[in-house]
Structures are given as structure tokens and as C-alpha cells.
Design goal:
The chain contains eleven helices and twelve strands. The chain has 332 residues and is α/β, with parallel strands linked by helices. The structure holds 3-isopropylmalic acid and magnesium ion.
């Protein structure tokens, strides 16, 4: 089956890392039809719109979207492109695997999955901005909590049902989180899955101290945002972490990192997070073996010292991407 894939490079390092992810997609999806969609701050500066209704229509015409990063200025009149897309395509599940590629010095490795609710919580977009008082409404619904809990439970069943599903929440202070916790617990019970509810602040420390205790963690939108950056510490930094934003109809793959304007244009950005996001797309298309091959090949390059400078290597962004395509081709 040939796939239609939308490619959004975006701002900052997006136009450097996405071509490397695309090399891998083109390698495996030989008859795919790729089309580019321009979105982000640079587009906003040129046209006054960072993501128009026409852009959303184009994205909806794709079987999957690979996305780099966009710069989101803290300007009250600028609407985050990412949030707009997640909302309009109803990409309710943000899956963020936290998996180390090489064993760290002491031989330990990390493998867990953060399942972040992606459409509500503090990212509801319902805000009143004033000069003396500003508010953001935190929305938790039973329907929203149930569907993300179901996604998390299906991942527990796929991965390791002996681990409890950990629910990251803050129900001692935010009573809206009691609805989230209870709905996750009810859903898990129906699947025969044990749960453990942990306060998110304590969880942020404990995942760093005891990462191997965790397998699947489900949490609300903003807590998932913060927890995934915290977990970057376990895996060599944000340059390593991919994500998939999945809904009923659409799928959108992006690195967890942002547009990193401070290093943009230097050819040193680590493309691994974007490439692993492409591997998640392959897995979404049912190409699990190919996705594993990409992961193994990244791992073997890094263990041979071939990496971008953030991991201690000397390779440029595009050298790493080309070496990876060679490595993948040799292993096939
Ligand atoms: C992420 C990012 C985004 C988020 C921003 C850029 C809107 O931090 O994907 O983690 O907060 O979700
Ligand atoms: Mg983030």
C-alpha cells in the first residue's frame, strides 16, 4: 500500500533534523508520496498565519505526518501551532517512549512509556488574560480520561501486564485530578490491570532514582509534558526522545524537543529524536521489524562513537543521518 506522508520541517532545527528522518522513511517506504506543508513562526512572519485552515486540510489528507519543531513565542496573540493541530486532528494520545539506546556505564537501561493526555487539562486553551489577573481553565472530562486510559491499558497488555499502570496525578491539590485518577482506575480494572496512583512531583524524582520500577505511566497533558522532559535525563537528553500523537483518524510524529533556535543553522542538531519518530511511524504502519532495525542501527552507531556533539561525537546532523541509512542498508 502506498502512503501519503506530510512533511513539516517547521522552525529552528526542524529543517535540519527532518530531512534525516525523511531519508529513513524514503528508504523503507519506497512508493510513498511525500508532500511538504509549511507551518510555524517563519510562516507567520511572512503571511500572518502560522497554520491556516487550508494547512489543516492538507494535513488531514495525509496517512501520517512527520513534524520537526516550531518556535512558539510567549506572545498572547500567537496560538501554538502544535496545540492547534493536536486539537483539530483530535490527536488525543501522546505516546512518549523513554528508552535508552545504549546501556549506561553501570550497565542499566531504561524502557518505559509515558502516555500523555493530549487534548485537555491545562492545555484547554480556555484562558482569560488580564493585566491584573489571568486564568487558564484546567479541564478534565470522563470521556477524555477514559480514552487515554484505554490507550494506556492497551499498551500495558502489549508490553508487560505484570507491571501496574502508574497514574501520575496531583489529586491532593487539584481536585479535577480525582476524576482523572478514578476514571483511569475504573478503566484499568475492566482490563484486569493493576494501577498505582502517584503524585506527579514525587514521580518526577522517583523515575530518575528508580527508572526500572516503571513501565507504562498515564498522566494529564501538562504533567506529561514536564515528565517527558525530566525523563530526557535518563536517555541522553532531549535529542534522543521521539513521540507519536495518535487519534482515531490521524497520526502525527515529532521529536519531543523544541526548535532550539540557539543551535539552529550550525549543522550540529541531533537528528535521533526525529529519526526515532520516523521509526514510530513505520511501526504505526505495521513495519515493526523495520522500526527495530532503525533503533538497533542508531544504537550501534552511537556505541561506535558516531554521533552529534551533544553525545560527544563529531558527526554533523546530515552525516549522522547518511551513516544511519548506510548502516540500515547493510543490516537488511
Ligand atoms: C512538547 C512541547 C509542546 C507542549 C509545546 C511546544 C507546545 O513542549 O511537545 O512537549 O507543551 O506540548
Ligand atoms: Mg515539552
Amino acid at each position: 500500500m502506498s502512503h501519503r506522508i506530510a512533511v513539516v520541517e517547521g522552525d529552528g532545527i526542524g529543517p535540519e533534523v527532518i530531512p534525516e528522518a525523511r531519508k529513513i522513511l524514503e528508504h523503507f517506504l519506497t512508493d510513498a508520496d511525500f508532500f511538504e506543508v509549511e507551518l510555524g513562526l517563519a510562516k507567520w512572519e511572512k503571511t500572518g498565519s502560522a497554520c491556516s485552515p487550508g494547512d489543516i486540510r492538507e494535513l488531514k489528507g495525509a496517512d501520517a505526518i512527520i513534524f520537526g519543531a516550531v518556535t512558539t513565542p510567549p506572545d498572547p496573540d500567537y496560538r501554538s501551532v502544535l496545540l492547534q493541530i493536536r486539537h483539530e486532528l483530535d490527536l488525543y494520545a501522546n505516546l512518549r517512549p523513554i528508552r535508552s539506546l545504549q546501556s549506561s556505564g553501570d550497565g542499566s537501561s531504561v524502557d518505559m512509556m509515558i502516555v500523555r493526555e493530549n487534548t485537555e487539562g491545562l492545555y484547554s486553551g480556555i484562558e482569560e488574560i488580564g493585566t491584573e489577573r489571568s486564568t487558564t481553565l484546567r479541564v478534565v472530562t470522563r470521556t477524555g480520561s477514559r480514552r487515554i486510559a484505554e490507550k494506556a491499558c492497551s499498551l500495558v497488555l502489549e508490553r508487560d501486564r505484570n507491571h501496574p499502570l502508574v497514574i501520575g496525578y496531583k489529586g491532593n491539590v487539584l481536585k479535577s485530578d480525582l476524576l482523572f485518577r478514578d476514571t483511569c482506575q475504573e478503566t484499568a480494572e475492566a482490563y484486569g490491570i493493576k494501577t498505582q496512583a502517584v503524585f506527579i512531583d514525587a514521580l518526577c524524582l522517583d523515575v530518575l532514582q528508580h527508572p526500572n520500577k516503571y513501565d507504562v505511566i498515564v498522566t494529564t497533558n501538562m504533567f506529561g509534558d514536564i515528565l517527558s522532559d525530566v525523563c530526557g535525563y535518563l536517555t541522553g537528553g532531549l535529542g534522543m526522545l521521539p513521540s507519536a500523537n495518535i487519534g482515531e483518524k490521524y497520526a502525527f510524529f515529532e521529536p519531543v524537543h523544541g526548535s532550539a533556535p540557539d543551535i539552529a543553522g550550525k549543522g550540529i542538531a541531533n537528528p535521533v529524536a526525529a529519526i526515532r519518530s520516523a521509526a514510530m511511524m513505520l511501526e504505526y504502519f505495521g513495519m515493526k521489524d523495520e522500526a527495530c532495525l532503525v533503533e538497533e542501527s542508531i544504537s550501534s552507531l552511537i556505541s561506535r562513537g558516531i554521533s552529534t556533539p551533544d553525545l560527544g561525537g563529531m558527526a554533523s546532523t546530515s552525516e549522522f543521518g547518511s551513516r544511519l541509512v548506510d548502516a540500515v542498508s547493510k543490516k537488511e
